[in-house]
Amino acid sequence: MAARRTSRFSTSYRSADARSATSTPTFKAPVSLAKRLLFPNLPHGADLPSLLAADDPELNAELYDFIALALRGFVTPWWMKLTRHDKEFLPEVTRVLAVFLRSVEARLASADLPSFVFRDVPAIVSQHYADYRNACAKVGTSYATGGSSTLPQIFHQLQPHMAVSPDGHWNETYIRQAVEHVMKSCLPPADWEAETERTIVREILAKVILGSVFSRLTQPWYLQKLILDLLGPPPDDRLEVKPCISMFKHYLKFLKPPDLPSRPTSRRRLSFQSIVVFFLSAVQIISGLCLTAIALSQKALYTIRAINSSSTSPVTVPHHDNLARLSIDMMAEILTMRSRASSAAMLSLVELSAGFCRPFTGRALPYILYNQIINVARITKIVVQSKKSLFPDGYPAESPPDPTPEEQIVLRKRLEARLMTLLPSMPAALLLGHDAASRGKTVSNAIAPLSSSECNVHLLILLFDAVLLALFPELGVVSGGMAAYTEGEIDDPHLIGYPSVETS
Fold first, then answer.
1. Spatial distance between the Cα atoms of 479 and 73, rounded to a whole number of angstroms
2. Which positions ≥6 away from 135 have C-beta within 8 Å?
3. Within 13 Å and on the Cβ side, how many CA atoms surround 480?
4. Could you give the CA distance from residue 91 to residue 209 in angstroms, rounded to a whole number?
5. For the ranges 43-47, 50-54, 291-295, 499-503, which has the lowest average pLDDT?
6. At what angle do helices 220-231 and 405-420 cross, to 10 degrees?
7. I need a surface site. Which of 207, 261, 357, 374 has the fewest CB within 10 A?
8. 442 Cβ contact partners less than 8 Å away, ≥ 6 residues apart
9. SS3 of residue 477 by DSSP
10. Distances in whole angstroms, Cα of residue 54 to Cα of each of 34, 59, 102, 244, 418
11. Most confident of 20-24, 27-31, 122-126, 262-266
12. Burial (Cβ within 10 Å: 0-12, 13-18, ≥19) of residue 174
């Protein structure tokens, strides 16, 4: 009897434990949007597949998150109206996008990016500044069709382009056809023949990404705000005091002997204590300056050794072209350095120094580009910032209203004031002008060529063409006038950046 009660009690105790174990809630980690939309069949806890050859987990997650937000915001609304049960369409679009991105990454690895950054981009920017100033000089003269042509129309005559209208509006069909040719070069034949997925990927690239970027980067106020954000807040002169100078002033007050009421004479003698304090403070200041110079020299020697030791790698192969020359010419054109004697002399000295250091700069500039500018951390930051600006709350953001004309004037004045504080007084007098008025005029003239949205369209389209030709040279035209694109029959006769040509 007692055994039955004991067994019944133990059975009920075990059943209570089982119920309590089953009733304990198990918390699972939340599933990301990329897993729910792009990989619905992926096991829980499994990592997302690598999107790029550079397998960085943070960059991989941010890129997948960006793709998921773009598909949810621009594809899912109309696709759900057609069918609610198809769960394979978005993963298939993601697979096509992954193949496309890997192909673009391989093109980037094999492209000559130093020549593009330090040769092509400075040449395009310098030409834009020169043509804008020439167009401004022709406004209201007989060169402007009797004075009736506007600034965008005159600028278009200096830089005619098939993708830009005379009024300064870019053609969406040109961007769409460019993306179409790029996809044809990147995708395998099986994915290229899938017209639905290909069209969706093309519209995401041409409309969502490039369309949003182009519409913003052509606005002068947006460029000015972007430059202000890159420069950061101005330094506060009241708070930023050099440590050595502040220390010297602190110890300098000990040179003043204390007031002696019993000795009314006007002459004051230096005490031995004041002389010792002054000597020790001077030694400390000199030693601090020497330590700073040693640290800078060691850092420079380390950088030089790193550049020379990596000279055999493909990213730092010495260039035969003088990469620094066009960048110097661009800065001279922006700051109108050739119009002033002091800045022209400084420009000649810099050009002469760059010519002597040409073998070293041919290795140093690619090293800086690949190690300081183009790296995984910076690309990840760009993707995060793009995601925040395009999808602030997880969905496509409405275009904010443009600033009023008064706010745009204030924004430009802020930029001019910030640029005036970049250089100390002596270098600013040599490069920008001898007085404040001339320096302000130089800074204003440097911002003016970017103050026309219609003219900025030409600059943006030319930079877009330069990027395409750097990554996909088969889309261009060789010097003989024949198309270098030989992959079968060309669907669109309009090649990138050039008028239509006939191929035999």
1. 44
2. 151, 154, 155, 158, 455
3. 5
4. 20
5. 499-503
6. 40
7. 261
8. 335, 336, 432, 433
9. strand
10. 19, 9, 10, 45, 38
11. 122-126
12. buried
- What distance in Å separates the CA atoms of residue 341 and residue 65, rounded to the nearest whole number? 54
Amino acid of residue 60: N
3-state SS assignment for residue 164:
strand
Split at pLDDT 50, 70, 90, the class of 332 is: very high
Q: How many CB atoms lie within 10 A of CB 263?
A: 10
- Give the type of residue at 218: T
- Residue 483 has phi, psi (to 5 degrees) of -75, 140
Which is nearest to 148 in space by CA: 139, 156, 137, 161? 139
DSSP structure class, residue 369:
I
Instruction: With a cut of 50, say whether residue 492 has pLDDT above it.
Output: no
- Rounded to an integer, what distance in angstroms lies between the CA atom of residue 69 and that of residue 88? 17
Q: What is the pLDDT of residues 390-425, one digit of tens each?
A: 787 888 777 678 889 899 999 999 999 999 888 888
Cβ-proximal residues to 125 (8 Å cutoff; 6+ apart), any chain? 330, 333, 334, 459
